[in-house]
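Quick one:
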Amino acid sequence: MKRREQWRPVLDAELKRWGAKSSEQLLAELGQVQAYEIEFENKMYQVEVEILENTEKYVHVLVAVDDGTLPAAMLPLSASFIREK
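Output:
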C-alpha cells in the first residue's frame, strides 16, 4: 500500500471527529491552527486542523494528515468541510 493510501483512514477519522462539532465549537477550538500527533494502528501521524473561512453563514475547515517523513510530509493528504452556522 502506498504511503498516502495509508493516511486515508486517519484523515477520515479526523474529519469525522472534527465534523461532528458545531460551528461554535469549531470557532472556539480553532482560534489558532491545531497541530498534534495521534497514534493510529500503532503508527504515529501528524494532523493539522485550521479554519479556512469564517463567514456569516458557515465555517470552512481544513484537516491535513501526514506521517512526518520527508519529503512525503511536504504534501499532506487533506480534505475540508463546511459547517453551517
